[in-house]
């Protein structure tokens, strides 16, 4: 306790003598990278102080309390940083980590492919070694922010003669090269939050592989684990976004760009929070049938929150994860679908409208056309059910058809 | 009742289906839905002149084609399957039925031929609040002499495309229908942005708009409503079948984990359940058409069958849409994939003319329960 307090007073006095809201974002964050105070839980040799994650969190909180900006964290960059910290070599850490936290470089994730979504390890993007370069050919999809990314985290196949998980490697690819073409992908709700990325003889220098050839899947698992952990993280903004000064203006622009793809995410979860307000303002609150559905929805949503609470409590007590931990995503799908139905019933024929004509300035329409995503994105409901039945309930595994050399595994006809 | 179409009816279905395949590939649907009018005038003319689809269910004595609700339902099912973009529901179902039910034979013979030929597009303006198609308290009023109407309507399907509006209004406290020239002074129309871009909606304001009173007595909107519900139910099962077909086709092709996803039992069972739901819904839609053919559209039997079908078909259509997206995975959520075209039609049809809950209640009331 005393240690934490003396640490905090050290940071406080450092901030007091260094923080300058008149400087540029990059100048300030460069200072943070040089001293290690922006990412204090990182190792000392790589822009940190070697502190524990708990101590790091205390310091981040102190920054926020003092109205001081921290390092860049929005978008995919922190997944890149975590992956590089865990699997990168010394040169890679030195080269990439600094510009990640100063916000100078943006990153994207290049995992999913048109042919391999649920079966992520079935990736068919190929990387072939030619002299000192890997030559990349293939297509990725669902890549958030790829259209303004400087670098991509790329999963590609380097060996076709071993089982699928063993033939993958993980690369850092420079997005700003002729062999990489990024196209925006429009969704059924009218937003274009994602991209397709086409790689045609794109070049990755040999030294840009993370970890060893064939270890790509393990590296990807690290990225995905961090992604899952960050899933509920409140994205940028917050109280700091209210403060005045040039550095805050710059920060707000950064957050706005990085948050743009996620604007409709609350709607895809069904907006249970709007249900009672909508029922009251439309008079649907007096309809006995709709009341039953509202009650059912609120029950479902409360129960899911309490289940998540049980999972957190068990985790904090250091107990092994019980079934409650795996169920949240599935519950979220059910809740979103029911919420969409109840919003429809409440809105009656107004549910036929869209844009500004739709209630709540279009939010209701956006719910109705966004909810289908929730049971697909981040692993489909069917895949969640397979995981739950096999890992939690211990049911027998499905017979597998994809355990031999990847070359011989049946795949979609359009793929090489 | 008949569980089977006659040979002539089967042939007619083939003709309509072929027309839809030729004229309404999804490339055409996408092109048209992005326009304000939302339909192709040439295709509309052919639909009227060659297929004879408009007025198909109206007796010849009233200026119609002289077939019945079953033939109307055949047309609707094929249009639902193909999402053919046209003012058919507005002009061929709602306005046509309203005129046939409410107008005198003389008036019908004056108004319907233009609609049947496709030269005139009709629309029905009755809805005034989001919770009901047939308002209990009609706010729109007619002048005492019945020569003009004042009020405001919304959710008027193809209201902007129409030349002729059939409008409900109170005349001496009785609900009546009026024919109003859509371009007349006192009529103001504006588009309502619809979630389903293949079904255009409008708001229409009437300010002492010149009107012609239809018929000689208070209008009973029930047969018009029931006919519209049955048409919509059949449209919905056509759409549901298209979605089921697309899901089956895709899951047979798509490979993950070294096998087609259709080989996973989880998916087979899902699609078997969906087939069951769609087939049950079809039976309700076909049965409702037959009840209208046998018993007329006005009675309690018609209301019971129409509402039962509307509720069942709406649920089946939405389920098919949800599952079709889900089974396509991420691609199913993209704009490029066609599934959302039907999803949006399913979603808006769910509440159009009343929600499934409302129709289950209406069905029970029609049964005297
Ligand atoms: C809104 C949205 C956001 C996304 N964001 C990202 C992102 O940020 N990053 C990223 O990498 N990806 C992202 N994705 C992609 C997403 O992860 C994939 O779409 C998803 O994993 C499904 O893969 P797929 O689309 O290839 O569908 P497929 O895997 O082809 O699935 C098609 C259908 O088959 C079912 N299926 C597949 N395998 C089985 C099985 N073994 N048993 C039973 N059923 C099965 C699926 O459940 C689904 O219903 C996003 C997708 C959406 C819609």
Give a description of the structure.
The complex is a heterodimer of chains A (416) and B (369). Chain A is α+β, with helices and mostly antiparallel strands. Chain A folds into three domains: 2-104, Butyryl-Coa Dehydrogenase, subunit A, domain 1 (Orthogonal Bundle), CATH 1.10.540; 107-223, Butyryl-CoA Dehydrogenase, subunit A, domain 2 (Beta Barrel); 269-377. In chain A, 43% of the residues lie in helices and 12% in strands. Chain A has 13 helices and eight strands. Chain A has helices spanning 2-18, 25-35, 53-65, 77-87, 90-102, 216-229, 246-259, 265-268, 275-282, 288-316, 324-347, 363-370, 381-392; strands at residues 107-110, 126-130, 133-141, 151-157, 168-174, 180-185, 194-205, 209-210. In chain A, the strands form two sheets. Chain A has a four-stranded mixed β-sheet with strand order 1-4-5-8. Chain A has a four-stranded antiparallel β-sheet with strand order 2-3-7-6, with no helix packed on it. In chain A, helix 10 runs antiparallel to helix 11 and helix 11 (324-347) runs antiparallel to helix 13 (381-392). The radius of gyration of chain A is 24 Å and the shape is globular. Chain B is α+β, with helices and mostly antiparallel strands. In chain B, a hairpin with an 8-residue loop joins strand 6 (187-192) and strand 7 (201-210). In chain B, 53% of the residues lie in helices and 15% in strands. Chain B is built from eleven helices and ten strands. Chain B has helices at 7-23, 26-33, 41-51, 69-82, 88-102, 105-117, 222-253, 265-295, 300-328, 339-351, 356-366, and strands spanning 122-125, 141-142, 148-157, 164-171, 174-181, 187-192, 201-210, 212-213, 255-256, 259-260. The longest helix of chain B is centred in the middle third of the chain and has 32 residues, at 222-253. Chain B folds into three domains: 7-117, Orthogonal Bundle (Butyryl-Coa Dehydrogenase, subunit A, domain 1), CATH 1.10.540; 122-213, Butyryl-CoA Dehydrogenase, subunit A, domain 2, CATH 2.40.110.10; 222-367, Butyryl-CoA Dehydrogenase, subunit A, domain 3 (Up-down Bundle). Chain B has a four-stranded mixed β-sheet. The model of chain B has no long low-confidence stretch (mean pLDDT 96). Chain B is globular. Chains A and B meet through helix 11, helix 12 and helix 13 of A and strand 9, helix 9 and helix 10 of B. The complex binds flavin-adenine dinucleotide. Flavin-adenine dinucleotide (FAD) sits between chains A (109, 111-112, 117-118, 142, 144, 373, 376-380, 382-383, 386) and B (254, 256-257, 261, 264, 266-267, 326-327, 329-331, 333).
